[in-house]
Amino acid sequence: MTVGPSLDELKKRLQQVRQSAIGFLSTVYRSSTPKYANQSDLLTGEGSRRFGGRWNPVGISAVYASLSPETAMAETLAHNRYYGIPVEDAMPRTFVAIEVSLKEVIDLRIGTVRQRLKVSLDRMVNVDWRTVVQSGAEPLPQRIGRAASDIGLEGLIVPSAADSSGHNLLVFPPNLEGNSKIRVLNTERL
Do residues 156 and 148 make contact, with C-beta atoms less than 8 angstroms apart? Predict the structure, then answer.
């Protein structure tokens, strides 16, 4: 049973709000284990493609980053706590700054965008997406991410489930257009 709009409905609605897509030029932040703290592993979306995430099902490459370093830390801590990993066992972590320049991003912070998509903030944030996936269904945030990727959007700005005042940027690397880019800053220090 599908809860919320179907994939086809979301694709249609995203196409309708596409004219409100924004360019996004900023620095975002990401946390990683030291083993994967390199330009290639941080920016391919391969890990999320293989394992899925809140906003992307298995099979879709997505790079997750936070709009603030505090939200990046909150996301890391929430992930570890969900799996019962003590904070000290999850360390060390490497935090990186990523320069992002995208042409077409849908900003789900905007209430009118969510209204036109017919999805509520609550339904995006307060779902245990892992449990829904384990039940064999696709949670609403993953369906939104799939629809966005399928229609060729470069990214989404999404609410953080770990930091009630924070937001994340989801980038679909295969959809990057001509001059769009994502790159880790200060790679010589990694």
Answer: yes
Token readout for 138 is 């696709």
What's the CA dihedral at 152, 158, 160, 164 to 10 degrees? Answer: 180
DSSP state string for 10-24: HHHHHHHHGGG-EEE
Tens-digit pLDDT profile for residues 17-66: 999 999 999 999 999 988 888 888 899 999 999 999 999 999 999 999 99
- Dig out the tokens for 96 from the structure: 């990186």
> If phi over 0 gives left and psi between -120 and 50 gives alpha, with beta otherwise, what is residue 186?
left
> What is the Cα–Cα distance from 172 to 14, expressed in whole angstroms?
15
Question: 23, 61, 16: which is closest to 42 by C-alpha?
Answer: 61
Q: Is the pTM of this model over 0.85?
A: yes
- Dihedral angle over CA of 67, 70, 74, 76, nearest 10: 80
Do 172 and 158 touch, CB atoms closer than 8 A?
Answer: no
φ/ψ of residue 13, rounded to 5: -70, -40
